[in-house]
Amino acid sequence: MPWGATPTTHIIKASRDRWSHEAVVEHLTMRTAAGCGIAAARTDVGWFGDKEVIIVERFDRTPEGTSRIHQEDMCQILGHPPRRKYQRNGGPAPEDIADMFRQASRDQADQNIARFLDHLLYLWIAADTDGHAKNYSALHLGDGSIHLSPMYDACSRLPYRKGKFAKKLQLAMKMGADFSLKAADSADALKRTARRLALSPSTVARRASEIASSVPDALAAALDSVPAHALDSKEVDALAAELPERAEQCLTVAESAAGQFDRGENPIRPAIAATGPPTGSLGRCQHIGVRSGKRCVRPTHKDKRHWYQ
User: Fold this and answer.
1) Tell me: the pLDDT tens digits for 193-251?
2) Boundaries of domain holding 300
């Protein structure tokens, strides 16, 4: 057990009362992500008496575990207070994070943005509604480079819908025209995501297809790795039943979108602002529409045509 200034090597979190068996569901969500080829923190489940916990191996430590690696979450890096961790509350948006990596991570920019895309797509598929800016971090290495951290705190909310239609769930970061899964489950959303990250729409759609097609087998392997008694809950049963179905739905969306993009079809109709000059920030316009209250995601421009998402 670490003492004093000795770095800790693991984080232990108990399931919260309002989210029964959350520790196991989070562990399964994380192990499934890893099984899809996404860099994710290593996790396990354990018990202290009858208290269920998830045990997370820290990734901000040197391999021998004796020294800390400096880490900052996206609110810290982009200058937002913790209370603005959600995009809908004025917090960082996907394009802000992508722009930061392009400016700050030099030769690693493409790799960081590709990994960030993986995180966004997987949280969409898994219906994780808590992927806010404090759940994305960058590691500062000794050579001066920065790297997107492995995924952490990912937990599907499918088992906790309480009868609510899944498409009414709200993502923490916008993929479609709004934050809902309904808006995210479309070719429009994948193209908007590509534009926000300045990537090829076909690249985004094909990566979404790859991840979605990997989820069922990855989840099955994750379930096999957990003690049988930990699987005896309605929440785990719901995840085991609903996540593969959701992945199949997302796969259909992604494959259809890839076909549209290959044919050169454009599912987005950009909006035009009535008033207001551009106010360049982080390489993008960032103009806020007077009527919509939404932010323009075009690169800095001189005309008054704005794209609000």
Assistant:
1) 999 999 999 999 999 999 999 999 999 999 998 988 888 899 999 999 999 999 999 99
2) 271-309
276 pLDDT exceeds 50? no
Contact 151, 166 (CB under 8 A): no
CA distance 230 to 22: 11
pTM strictly above 0.70:
yes
- What does the block give as tokens for 91? 């917090």
Phi, psi of 272 (to 5 degrees): -120, 130
Closest by Cα among 191, 172, 183 to 123? 172
| Gap between the Cα atoms of 201 and 278, Å rounded | 25
Structure tokens at 156: 């599907």
Task: Report which of 183, 282, 279, 94 is spatially closest to residue 306, judged by C-alpha positions.
Answer: 279
Residues 214, 290, single domain; the answer is no
The reply to whether 51 falls in a domain is yes
Angle between the N-to-C axes of helices 22-35 and 201-224, in degrees from 0 to 180, rounded to the nearest 10: 120
Sign of CA dihedral 87, 92, 96, 98: negative
Same domain, 309 and 167: no
104 and 61: one domain? Answer: yes
CATH code of 145's domain? 1.10.1070.20
Indicate if 174 and 290 belong to the same structural domain: no
